[in-house]
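Thread amino acids onto this structure.
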């Protein structure tokens, strides 16, 4: 799992999602929005 950190929000994305994010050049905020929609926030 790739983990995207922003402030206190932790978003886990699958390796495939991470590859797609890198492949399509999605910016971090966009990736966080996508991950949030798919998974919802995970709090530490």
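Threaded sequence (44 positions):
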């Amino acid at each position: 799992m790739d983990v995207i950190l922003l402030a206190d929000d932790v978003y886990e994305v699958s390796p495939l999602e991470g590859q797609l994010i890198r492949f399509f050049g999605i910016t971090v905020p966009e990736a966080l929005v996508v991950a949030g929609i798919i998974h919802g926030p995970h709090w530490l």
